[in-house]
Amino acid sequence: MAAVPTLAVFKLASCDGCQLTLLDCEDELLALAGRVRIAHFLEASSAVQPGPYDLSLVEGSITTPADAERIRAIRSASRRLVTIGACATAGGIQALRNFADVEEFRRTVYARPDYIDTLATSTPVSAHVDVDFELRGCPIDRRQLLEVVTAFLADRRPDVPDHSVCFECKRRGTVCVTVAHGTPCLGPVTHAGCGALCPAYGRGCYGCFGPSGSVNLPALIPVLQRDGLDDRDTERLLSTFNVAAFAAHDREPRP
Q1: pLDDT score of 253
Q2: Which of 26, 138, 157, 170 could form a disulfide with 241 if both were Cys (CB 3.0 to 4.6 A apart)?
Q3: What is the pLDDT of residue 101?
Q4: Of 248, 251, 43, 236, nearest to 139 (Cα)?
């Protein structure tokens, strides 16, 4: 009889929201638990079994030297490694430090900054080790998460589309908030996965799933400015959960 595959879930610098998405799967999680052995998942149980693991899910970005060392150990103990969420795939909102002086932050925030051992940047896991798949979102989508886990357990590539939120708006019959109402929206450059939730309620997309496979920010920025955003407002709209990812796509303007 073949051995039951092992699943491990790890956390680095993050808010735990993507791990909670896995726990929120409820009935689906019970079915999944019948097919795998959950060997490491501190959010759910203190029982920990040593690797190697068939599939490891990693939430969180690399922000300390200890993180960098730990992710190398996780990679060496994992047959497949999947990063989940904006922190693990793009550095997260904490990557705003990448554009500022982290030493100044440390002096300002902490009474004893000499006790704080941190890196100058917050970087995605893929900047440090090889990653088999990146699942985007802040937080991730439960349906996409289940697809990724079941796909890797079945030794196939996950079927997660790389198109933009605009496709999801069209599929659910949502009127374009930019065309109809002049509402600033990042949907044209944002990875699908949320089901176009915000536009369905008349709000512009704010990019929580990061850049889509095809990003044309130079074309979108004049539209955002036409709809009332100045350079500072545009910068703020792009500087949220996936700030470093948008920067990697030649984001403009950057003062």
Answers
A1: 33
A2: 138
A3: 92
A4: 43
The closest of 96, 100, 71 to 86, measured between CA atoms, is 96
The DSSP letter of residue 55 is E
Q: What CATH number is associated with residue 147? A: 3.40.50.700
Looking at the structure, do residues 32 and 137 belong to the same domain, yes or no? yes
Rounded to two decimals, the pTM is 0.89
- Tokens representing 66 are 């200890």
In degrees and rounded to multiples of 5, residue 247 shows phi and psi of -65, -35
Are 86 and 58 in contact by the 8 Å Cβ rule? The answer is no
* Gap between the Cα atoms of 235 and 255, Å rounded: 9
Query: Nearest Cα to 128, choosing from 48, 168, 190, 72?
Result: 72
**What is the per-residue DSSP string for 77-97?**
TEEEEEEESHHHHH--GGGGG
User: b vs e for 150-181, b when ≥16 Cβ sit within 10 Å of the residue's Cβ?
Assistant: bbbbeeeebebeeebbbebbeeeebeebbeee
Number of Cα atoms under 13 Å in the Cβ half of residue 49:
11
Which residue among 125, 153, 181 closes a domain? 153
Q: Which two tokens stand for residue 129?
A: 């080790």
The boundaries of the domain holding residue 196 are 165-248
For residue 130 the two structure tokens come to 């090889």
* Residues 81-113 pLDDT 10s: 999 999 999 999 999 999 989 999 899 999 999
More confident residue, 215 or 251: 215
